[in-house]
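Task 17 of the worksheet. Students: predict the tertiary structure of the chain below and write it out as structure tokens. Keep your answer in the requested format; marks are given for formatting as well as content.
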Amino acid sequence: MPRYDYLCEQCGPFIQWLKISEVTECVDCPECQKQSKRLYSAPGLIFTPQALRQRIERGVEPKVVQKESHGHHGTGCNHGHAHGQHAPARQHGSKRPWMVGH
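Model answer:
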């Protein structure tokens, strides 16, 4: 249901949730039951720059990323790391300390 704002001269502004078919210029105040007039305001539109809107629309579909081949052939892997063992954490002096090495 849409929201409509009304103003009671005695109690102040209040909100009514009404069906579109039930909307009138005046409704009874829920506090004092006096007739209250409807308030009109600008709709809550947000204008997004075109460049940002296009990036958001393009980002809806996930990108397909190909996993790079690591070049493992048989049991001999000479890339300076051990498989099946935990790699030591990087030192804080590296450029990206939050990345885990392989």
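Marker's comment: DSSP finds one helix and four strands in the chain. The mean pLDDT is 77.
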